[in-house]
Amino acid sequence: MEKLKKDHQLTLSVSPHVRSEETTSRIMWSVSASLLPATVMGAYFFGPKAVLNVALCIIASILSEFLYQKGTDRKITVNDGSAFLTGLLLGLNLPPTVPFYIPIVGSVVAVVITKQLFGGLGYNVFNPALIGRAFLLISFPKLMTIWAEPTAAFIKLDAKTTATPLGILKEEGVAKLLEMFGDNSNLYLQLLSGHRAGSIGETSAIALLLGAAFLFYRGYITWHIPVSFLGTAGLMAWAFGAKGAFFAGDPIVHLLSGGMLLGAFFMATDYVTCPSVKAGQILFGAGCGFLTMLIRLKGGYPEGVMFAILIMNCFSPLIDRGFKTKVFGAKKEVKK
Amino acid sequence: MTMDFTKLFELIVAASLINNFVFTRFLGLCIFFGVSKKMETAVGMSVTFTAVMMISAALSWVIFNFVMVPLDITFLKIIVFIGVIAAFVQASDTIMRKVAPALYYKLGIYLALISTNCIILAVPLINAGEHYNFIESLAFGLGSGIGFALALIIMASIREKLELADIPAPFRGLPMAFIVSGLIALAFTGFSGLITL
Questions:
Q1: B192 chain-A contacts, CB cut-off 8 A
Q2: Which helix (H) or strand (E) covers residue A35, if one does?
Q3: Hey, which end of chain A has fewer CB within 10 Å, N or C?
Q4: 0.90 exceeded by the pTM?
């Protein structure tokens, strides 16, 4: 009886209201497809262990969503691709050599706590994959900062570990980075191709830009968040990036390294956790860029993209409130 | 002088964001969960709280440095600060009832709760422990107030959004609020190491 009554209730949901079930899954699978180049490059540079970890993330995400929905007697929505995408994004954000339980723990946190407890897709306040990763970074700080050296040879199993470009930038400065990579143009080239240490899917700028171009072409993401994100971050890197002198920093190194591109195009643009008004999205992106550079230049962590997006996720309901257009004649409902 | 302003600015930023009392020290949670259900009460509480915070930081500083230090009774600071703050909050409670009755009825019990709020007590204690001067104490109080206001307003906006969400029955209301604030705290760890005082 209770269930019957529930079926006849009107579905109340937050904006945007235009998407229907079919297009949700279409978008999810398309975004997953757009991450294919980055995944392939990650596999190429970091080998079978990386592939295994990404696969584990995806399987664990789908499985935990399925089991949760089965256990709580909810509609099974595994087919809509959102669990797959969460798993894929989490996998691409992990260091290549983490032990097998890391992807599993991260996926369960991402899917069950960050998404399902909030009521499922569309209600979550935070980006699930990023919460999964932040949880792992805080819980396993050592394992989550072991960076394998890219080998560019799929069969080589025991990769050496090294520091990420951002780690070197933080600890030893830009001179050391240039010394490692030769000159500026070689550094840019390596950052573009992805021949550097880092998370599985974040290293190859070209592959990420290719995926982003596909998303733009399909109209799944708009310029507002990525441009304001990267623009603010670039401006700050240029203005404050160098020690002792203003406007002498190198914005290109900062924009191409770390998770900047992955975050700006694929994470910050998540429909559910970013503001839905365009003006709000520009503010959201600018906030992400600002916080990212603040953490990179002044904070305790070498990389700030993840925290920046999560912090701005907290603010997005507030931003939406601030930019909300008034409904004509609407009265505020008194709730007791 | 410029050095001083940098220090004050750092104090305010550190107290409001980096060492946010709610999200990194987990203090003041009773009020935080109590009034963050609606934006209106959250904003009212934020303003009241910040004002009470600054005035009680100032009052306790004066009493600590001009009464307790000369009399060598600084070991009594917890009891004395509680007394001072409670008396002050009771006074402002009475004034508010006369001046702004609507706001008084909205905030109700929570105004009385401010007097026993851990942040209100923590700030004078930290000010005394760190030997901040008068202006620094005020800045620290202001920063803490802003930080608490920020936490309340973020939380209220999220909780109002979640009103419409299809949250599983056992998690509705307070449990979800705890999970949300845990996740916000997770995000705020990104600020760690930003400014070391």
A1: 299-301
A2: none
A3: C
A4: no
